[in-house]
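Here is an idea for our session: we take a single protein and study its fold together. To get us started, please write out a protein record for me. Start from the sequence, derive the backbone structure tokens from it, and show both lines together. Go ahead whenever you are ready, and we will take it from there:
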Amino acid sequence: MNWLFSFALSFVIGIGFYGSFTSTSFWVTFPLLYILLVIISLKYVSWSFLTKADWIVGIMSGVILYGLFASGNAFMQWLHIPIEPYVRHLYSSISPSVWWQHLLMFLLIIPGEELFWRGYLHKRLFTLSPFQRTIVAASFYTAAHLCSLNPLLALAAFVGGIMWGALFEWRQKIEVAMVAHVVFDVLLVYLFPLS
């Protein structure tokens, strides 16, 4: 993979992320960014049918990841680490609040994240070992999320990037990572939001 191209693309994405997270029009700019990333990715993604085992792995991985986040949140609160403002900021700034934002989240943003970060970027790191690919792709994913200026979101991106990258390596199907990502977001945003 051309590292200069990857760096330049990550920089452009970072500007897009920064612009999205710092503007009042997040739900306009962020989906537009992901339309571009999906267009870049589609040429490199191969589609597969999910087996019963794939569905189970995807669903359980999403539940486990949510459990890690909930446990980490509780642990940081127990240590009196002041994370509440960052958590509140995340929920107030990027949680969908109207019907079309919910649609964009599930039909564009979550699939777009998996298509680009795992299906395109992770896959193109083929000269590296599976472990290295997972770490490097998760690091690029985290770097883009650093532009939100929210350390919790960057940490979440790294942990999620590792989990979804490892799933992609293990099952060799981008759809399994998508299922895990959807389950995680449903738990985090709708069913059991963190406080």
Notes: DSSP finds eight helices and no strands in the chain. Residues 3-191 form one domain.
